[in-house]
Amino acid sequence: MCEIVELTPGCMVKNWKIEEKVGEGGFGAVYKCVNEKNELYALKVEGKEEKVQLLKMEVYVLAELGKFGGRHFCRIEDRVCQFNDRFSKC
Question: What CATH number has the domain bearing residue 30?
C-alpha cells in the first residue's frame, strides 16, 4: 500500500476547497469538497507512488460511460492529472 496524499481541510486544489476526508483504502482516499458555487463534490486521490495509475484508468472509463448518458455512474467534473508537493503542504 502506498502513502496516501493527505489534504488539509480548507486547502484548495485547483478550484476545489477541501472540506474533510470521507475515507481511504489501499489505492487512495476520497475527500468531500466544494466548488466556488459551494456545490458539494467528491475528490479522489491515489497513493503518491502508485506504479499503476488506476485513477487515470477510472477517469477514462467513467468519461466514456458518461457519453452514453447513464445515470448510474459518477460524472467527471474536473481532473488534476499530476501530483506535486503543493498538495501535501496545503
Answer: 3.30.200.20
Domain count, the chain: 1
- Pull the grid cell for residue 33: 469538497
10-36 per-position pLDDT tens digit: 999 888 999 999 998 877 899 999 999
Q: What is the pTM of this model?
A: 0.75
What's the count of helices (H) and strands (E) in the chain, helices before strands?
1, 4
Gap between the terminal Cα atoms of the chain: 23
In the annotated binding site for ATP, the residues are: 44
- Quick one: cell of 52? 499503476
Binding positions: 44
